[in-house]
Write a structure and sequence with these properties.
alpha/beta; Glutaredoxin; 5 strands
């Protein structure tokens, strides 16, 4: 994607120089290609964050998911490895995990493990969204939110109320 966006930037920049009368079309082409390049870079960074963060535990199989769903307390985060909102929100989830080590944070990568994501929706009776954060206490979902509602502060508030 980065290569394609880079080629697009070069193409539309040349077209802009050669045909300045159509500057709106060519300028828009440059802007879209820059946007796609930046978006892809953010998504790639977010995926590396998951792989390198000791506070995030990726779920790869149903057995591990079953243990998480039955746990006394945990945060389950559904992450799309292609979504720019997920790319932003993962930093909030990581920050929460680092500041609340007593609340393990588990990640399901929904594109790679869609079946696991479906199991979560089915067992916890919570409609699937991505990105989505769920707080699990004593084997049930006590709170969930999605997209820009996922912040370290909101997660902290809700686990504090569950810890009482």
């Amino acid at each position: 994607m980065v290569l394609l966006a880079s080629v697009g930037i070069i193409f539309f920049t040349i077209r802009l120089a050669v045909d300045p009368a159509n500057w709106v079309v060519h300028g828009t082409g440059v802007a879209v290609c820059v946007y796609m390049w930046v978006r892809h870079a953010k998504v790639g960074r977010s995926n590396r964050t998951i792989a390198s963060s000791p506070s995030l535990h990726v779920i790869h199989d149903e057995a591990t998911l079953g243990e998480v769903l039955a746990s006394d307390h945990a945060v389950l985060y559904k992450h799309s490895t292609r979504c720019p909102v997920s790319a932003i929100v993962i930093d909030e989830v990581r920050q929460f995990g680092e500041t609340h080590p007593s609340w393990p944070v588990y990640v399901i990568q929904v594109i790679e493990h869609r079946r696991l994501s479906d199991i979560v929706a089915e067992r916890l009776a919570v409609r699937h969204e991505s990105p989505q954060a769920l707080i699990i206490n004593e084997g049930r979902c006590v709170w969930d939110t999605s997209h820009n509602g996922i912040t370290a502060q909101r997660l902290s508030q809700h686990v504090a109320s569950e810890s009482k």
